[in-house]
Amino acid sequence: MRQLLIRLSIKQKIIAVSLFISLAVVSVTASVFYFKEVQLLRTAMVVNTQTQATLIASSVVAAITFDDKLAATDSVRLLENNDDALYAAVVLPDNTVFAQYQSQPMLPTPIIDLSENIKFSEDYLEIVTPIVDNGNVLGHLYMCVGLDTLNELLNKYRIIFIVTLLLSVFASYLLALKFQRLITRPIMAMVKQVETLAAQRDYSKRLSLSLNNELGRLQHGFNHVLDVVEERESQLQRHSETLQEIVNKRTKQLYQKAHFDALTGLPNRYLLLDRLDHAISNAKRNSGQLAVLFMDLDRFKVINDSLGHEVGDQLLQAVAVRLKNVVRECDTVARLGGDEFIVLLENIDHARDCARVAQAINQLFETPFKLEHHVLHVSTSIGICIYPDDGVDAKALLKHADISMYHSKRKGPSNYSFYEAQMDEKIHLRLELENQLRHAIDYNELYLHYQPQTCIKTGQITKVEALIRWHNKLLGHVSPIDFISVAEEIGIINQIGFWVVEQACRQVSDWQSQGVNCPKIAVNISSTQLLDGDLINHFSRLIDKYEIEAHYLEIEITEDVFVDQSSRTIEVISQLREMGINIAIDDFGTGYSSLSYLKKLPIDTLKLDGAFVSDVQYSASSQGIVSSTIILAHSLGMKLVAEGVETRSQLNFLKSQNCDYVQGYYLYQPMPADEVTKCLAAFYLGSAEHQAESTLDNANI
User: Fold this and answer.
1) Looking at the predicted structure, is the pLDDT value of residue 159 above 90?
2) 600 pLDDT higher than 90
3) Which residues span the domain enclosing 610?
4) Engineering a disulfide at 90: which of 98, 185, 453, 496 sits with its beta carbon 3.0 to 4.6 angstroms away?
5) What separation in angstroms does the CA of 598 have from each of 536, 554, 564, 587, 603?
6) Which of these, 519, 550, 547, 522, lies nearest to 536 by C-alpha position?
7) Can you tell me whether residue 419 is helix, strand or coil?
């Protein structure tokens, strides 16, 4: 029932309520009237019947007194004029019927019940009236009256009631229809306008009904709600536009982050692979060619470690700018990570096109990079492979370009190489070398040889340079030229360097314990090891562990570490010198030669690179370089060691220029520690002068 009411419309509810009220009011009113009339009619019938009964009872007193049944019967027969009277009887006190009247003799005689004076049954009214004479009850008059007349009258009343009820309901329905229109018409008009507003979503419109009642207030309230909704809609629209701008911006940022390198803005590996796959598809469809140039910056790790990552990042950004200016718009320059860059050249005709681009890149790198606080000289190694000759998919092309880049790196700075099939074998050997090298210390495969440095005046061995050697059970003897660079690339150069320092300290301790006149031992320190935060502590621990004096040690560093005269570099070298460790510049003249760092740093020795000594006997320029370098070293209070002395003429020239020390195969080859011990013993067993003469004049050990 409740669900039914909920589903009804307001119009239907108004009509239903009106009809219900009308029906209720008419029903109650008619029912009250009907029941009141019934009561009145029954009362009137009782009164009339009692009146007749009283009259008859009065008239039969004499007949009962004189026992005149005939007279009593005549008196009772007076009821014949009453159509409703069915039966009457004069009943004596002993309950005998003295006289009686029955309107229809064929009907059974009613049972006389004198217990109630008035008794209504469904069809009859029974009246009992006492017959009294001077206060004496002579008997009772019993009357039974039919109710047909009363019931017919009541039936008429019922019909009137029903007709009246139906007419009232119908009239109420008509009135309800009229009344509901007064209420629902403005409501429906409001609903229609609201539906129109909702359909058009135009919240600037307003309800415009002329109403001064509650619906008018509802309209005003609804219009106020529309004001709020319109303002809110305007705010939401502005907010939505702002959110859309943010979403577009974030989408662009996410795309940028997913496809471009955050540091340089170049395409990253993901976008490069996508473009490379697309370029391969185009080249395959058009039977064309493309090239992949794999680039790696030379000495970038040195720059990054010595100057800091911020300078390294600035350099990478500057490199990216230059590379973008050297290629066509249809080509792609990408950064794989670290200092590795890829140049994708599409639609090339010949391999020489790639060579021209590689040459152009190398020429660009000849110009120093001017950063915020530094000017850096940087070179690059480039590996080139061509589709489809060197690979038919992105993975193969990148792999082969990487292999050829490593081949370029072995050739020296600013070189490029085209991929060749035999390079695969070389790279496999390199990978095997890497794997074996990682365990070389643990497997005791590394050992040291020492090459003496001889005083050019006395022939005395004053220092020996510790040179690392490696013998692997699979690879055999591996040259330091082959594995030192690999150790730097795979990040174990510091571990190896610290091992060399400890072996040198142990050897000094052994010689001292043997009573040998111990020479200084020079060890090579890489730029990354020099900047290791534990370097000073490591030297200090080893000196204490082996109970040696620091001046028996000398570190040889290359000019690479002076690519920037950073406070960290100066601080570390100064601390080592304060400990008593000697400082030597190795391969002087081949790298970042500058007088400024020679003045600032506590350097004891310059080691002139053998390249300047090798042709000194017949090259005037080499003679000039050697002579000026010796003068420079002496003017700065330093000693000079000439490396690579392999002939008598070279030795004579150096001696004529007052060189301090010489080192080379003409005098001594690198040798085990026990051989050095024998050389030291031989020198001090004989005459110093004689030994010097024999060493410098006849040596070829």
Assistant:
1) no
2) no
3) 449-469+479-698
4) 98
5) 22, 17, 13, 14, 7
6) 550
7) coil
Tell me how far apart the alpha carbons of residues 316 and 335 are, in angstroms, rounded to a whole number: 9
Specify whether 249 is located in the same domain as 287.
Answer: no
pLDDT higher than 60, residue 701: no
Give the model confidence (pLDDT) of 392-412 as tens digits: 999 999 999 998 988 888 787
- HSE-CB at 256 with a 13 A cutoff on CA atoms is 10
For residue 678, the domain's CATH number is 3.20.20.450
Residues 253 and 273 in one domain: no
Q: What is the pLDDT of residue 5?
A: 59
Identify whether the C-beta of residue 666 lies closer than 8 Å to the C-beta of residue 699. yes
172-190 mean pLDDT? 74
**Greatest Cα-to-Cα distance within the chain, rounded to the nearest angstrom:** 206
Domain match, 550 and 690 both: yes
Say whether pLDDT at 290 is over 50.
yes
The token pair at 70 is: 């005939």
Instruction: List the end-to-end C-alpha distance of the chain, in Å, as a whole number.
Output: 122
Going by pLDDT thresholds of 50, 70 and 90, the confidence category of residue 660 is very high
Question: What rounded mean pLDDT belongs to the chain?
Answer: 84
Whether residue 437 is predicted with pLDDT greater than 60 in this model: the reply is: yes
Q: What is the rounded CA–CA span in Å between residue 513 and residue 508?
A: 9
d(CA 20, CA 15): 8
- For residue 347, give the CATH number of its domain: 3.30.70.270
> Hey, what amino acid is at 667?
L
DSSP 61-123: HHHHHTT-HHHHHHHHGGGGG-TTEEEEEEE-TTS-EEEEEES-TTSPPPPP--S-SEEE-SS
Alpha-carbon gap, residue 609 to 81, rounded angstroms: 168
Which residues, in sequence order, are bridge partners of residue 476?
472
Name, in order, each residue with C-beta under 8 angstroms of 508's C-beta and a sequence gap of 6 or more. 518, 521, 546, 548, 552, 553
For residue 152, which amino acid is it? Answer: E
Helix (H) or strand (E) run with residue 440 in it: none
Angle (CA) 608 613 618, round 5°: 150
CA distances (Å), origin 125, targets 27, 77, 143, 145, 371: 29, 18, 8, 5, 132
